[in-house]
């Protein structure tokens, strides 16, 4: 399965990541990376492309793609800490990944999602999507 970064979606209220399949009249059709099931997500749902998500640091926002790459480097392409670990362990781990993250604006729940997404991509052999260039990430027709 060829997956592009611009097709990967996070959907508020749903766990895991999804691949964009098609636009429907009632919303978007997505496929879960976890179990491969296709679902119609209503147009009212908050859907975010992974390529558009960033993490707050003390000075700027870092694209999620770059944070996931930092985890990949730290783990040598292997799995990260379990995202269900104790909150203190999770935050300590993330400090190794991104020491400059903004501790006031990046919540433990955000870190757990990021680690969970990394582990999902890693387990599915999809970490190579993190190496796509910005041209490959932009939606068609956008410059």
CATH topology of the largest domain: Arc Repressor Mutant, subunit A
Q: How many helix segments?
A: 4
Q: Largest sheet, if any?
A: 5 strands, antiparallel
Helix content: 25-40%
Under the CATH scheme, which architecture of the largest domain would be assigned? Orthogonal Bundle
**Which strand order do you get reading across the main beta sheet?**
4-3-2-1-5
**What's the quaternary structure here?**
single chain
Radius of gyration, CA atoms, in whole angstroms: 15 Å
Total number of domains: 2
Mean pLDDT: 91
Strand residue content: 15-25%
User: What is the H-and-E element order?
Assistant: EEEEEEEHHHH
Distance between the termini: 26 Å
Summing up helix and strand content along with how strands pair, one would put the structural category as: alpha+beta
Number of extended strands:
7
Shape: globular
Return residue spans where pLDDT drops below 50 for at least 5 consecutive residues.
137-143
CATH class of the largest domain: Mainly Alpha
């Amino acid at each position: 399965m060829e997956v592009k970064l611009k097709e990967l979606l996070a959907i508020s209220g749903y766990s895991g990541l999804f691949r964009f399949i098609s636009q429907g009249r009632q919303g978007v059709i997505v496929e879960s990376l976890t179990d491969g099931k296709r679902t119609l997500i209503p147009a009212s749902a908050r859907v975010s492309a992974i390529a558009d998500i960033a993490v707050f640091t003390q000075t700027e926002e870092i694209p999620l793609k770059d944070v996931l790459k930092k985890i990949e480097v730290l783990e040598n392409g292997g799995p990260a800490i379990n995202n269900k670990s104790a909150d203190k362990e999770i935050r300590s781990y993330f400090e190794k990944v991104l020491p400059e993250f903004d501790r006031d604006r990046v919540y433990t729940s955000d870190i757990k999602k990021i680690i969970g997404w990394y582990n999902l991509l890693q387990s599915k052999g999809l970490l190579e999507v993190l190496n796509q260039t910005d041209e490959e990430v932009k939606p068609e027709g956008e410059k």
